[in-house]
Write a structure and sequence with these properties.
eight-stranded mixed beta sheet; 763 residues; globular; single chain
Amino acid sequence: MHSAPYEGCTLFSPAYCMISTESDLKPLSFFSFFIALTLQIASAQSAPANKKPLTIEAIFAEGSLTGRAPETMKWSPDGKMLSYVQRDDSGDHGELWYVDAATGEKKVLVSESKLATLAPSAEKIKDEREKERVTRYNVAAYNWSPDSKHLLFDSQGQLWLYSLESGAAVQITSSPDPSGDPKFSPDGSRLAFVRKHNLFVQTVDGKSKTKALTKDTDENLLNGEVDWVYAEELGVRSNYFWSPGGSEVAFLQMDETSVPTYPITDWMPTHPNVDKQKYPKAGDPNPAVRLGVVDADGGKVKWVTLTKDPEFYIPRFGWIRDGWLWAQVLNREQNTMDLYFIDSRSGKSRKVLTESSPDAWVNVNDDFHVLKSGDRFLWSSWRDGHTHLYLYSFGQSDPLSADAKLENQLEKGDYEVIQVDGIDEQGGAVLFTSNQDDPRQNQLYSVKFDGTGLTRLSKDEGTYASIVSDDGKHYAATFSSSNTPPRSSLCTVGGTCQVFWESRNVADYSLIDPKFLDFKADDGTILHGYVLLPPNATGKVPLIVDVYGGPAGQTVTRVWGGTTGLFHQYLLTQGFAIFSVDNRGTPNRGKKFSAATRHQFGGVELKDQLTAIDQLLPQYPQIDRDRIGIWGWSNGASMTLYALTHSDRFKAGVAVSPVTDWHNYDSIYTERYMGLLKDNLLEYDKPITKDAPKLHGALFLAHGTSDDNVHFQNSVQMIDALIKAGKQFHLMIYPNKTHGIAGSAARSQLFHLMEEHWERELK
């Protein structure tokens, strides 16, 4: 579950939210239009000399102010080239580029004319849900071949093989049914892919017929395919893998037979269409899963039994080496994860490691790595209160002979390892992202397998996202900070970096730097926040609180804020102050901080928000304590509604795509933080809808009708409760829009309506 005006988020992660939104309730009246026009003219007139005024249209135009960032960065398997797709602002025109790791030279790999066929822009996808799936989950349009001499393109379900030597592309599938998640065999001679919920294999040269490895006709059985809830809440991107030698394929079968459906309606045709989305809500049956192994030439599937627990997840699995598999098994409560090793020939398995967190939950991630030595693996854990890296050993000749043995902890301290980015096997080092210098920053580090040589590789103060080459010798680093838009560089580990892409210059705009502040919760816990004050303001100024508040994302970070950050900058020019604080329950501050809100929603979070505001106001007497608004998306929208119904401190609020009743949200996310429905009935029975009669302040509510993440049902139930309570509010519905309410027109309209709401209610 992630949030929403923070680019790249899901219901409850503010990363996803900065990208999309649309908005409000009725056409602008002539008077409203006149006021808006007057404000824009005033903004332009008040801009410093030689500086450009920000406008909502410019912020939400295709490409925004900074330009469209590179897409699908990938290292060639030999580590010599970093490739990426670069498109223009519209997204319609693009080329596939590469950067030479040795020289830093940048060249076109696939021309615009060829790429238009091989990897058409996601903007060409008409279905909003499919477009969001592709962009939200970063579905790759191309893959490198193992020999680094070919590229495999997925052109909207048809596969093409492109030769770097000849520059020619050959279509290798022609079925009317789309093929997805294609993968080369380790030797590059064959391809596997998913089609109509089954796994298929064919030779790359097309000399043999396509062979079905599974042949299920039941639409509820997904072989090697990922369902919605695993993709959204466990970060699963693929459910099948070739064995290292290419003789077998391991896959997860998901049975959705018992999973309830939710109707998503397209209201635009004369006769509306209804799609029944498989979506398990809290307490509902989840997809039943089992692990299978099948010969790459076809044959009978060997099924693996791992646990007698009737309800469990398999969030990650893969190959140790030929003949041996590993799999993680997570219980439904999500507080215990078992690591199993499996003999793929006999089906025998052994639980070799158990990770338990009875007072919180076990985080699912991609940090598990088997080293090439074949007898050690990397593991991350929250066990000492913070996420750190651990090295384990196991029996190389017989992985089932004994439990895994802890060799050493690679690093430790009062900080979080965010993720493992890569491994330098030759140098005996792990490259990982961490916030050890500042919980508001992400930096890249390296540490040796023996725990020595901890080194920070990234340099500038801010946030880095890194993609490491397979050999661990190079990495692509995308850096940004609060008012420094992203730039991407190719770097040598321990050496220099060379920029290969930069955002357009925003120096022509008068962007205000946030003032970072610390506050104390009632138990003494330090809370990080920031404030932005309008320039040249006279008299008292209204304050808008930007809230997320949930376990999937922070708002107080030293990172480029995207379109939402620019909108906040625009509000500064209109005379509003902006404030945000990360309350207890938000991530990346350790287990105690994150789990402070476990098994409840709203109480602790709102208390921290109000406590921070109480400490902010004496420091900035120009802020008007009687004109405070609050807004958020997804979890932030839920927090906005909770604040407006459990406090009288806020004069107005904007809630976009909220969860209003935790019975309505998906099983994996909700139960991870709220506990199982049967064990926590009292807290589940406190929906925000019940508190509609206590609404304080002017509410503006917005939601997309095709939101397959936080269903439109949530807002419908809130609307009904508000009407029955006799409460007035403003509403905007976005036909066929999903959780992000994406698109330039929709976003511009939504944020104009938001601004109008603040002008009307806070001024």
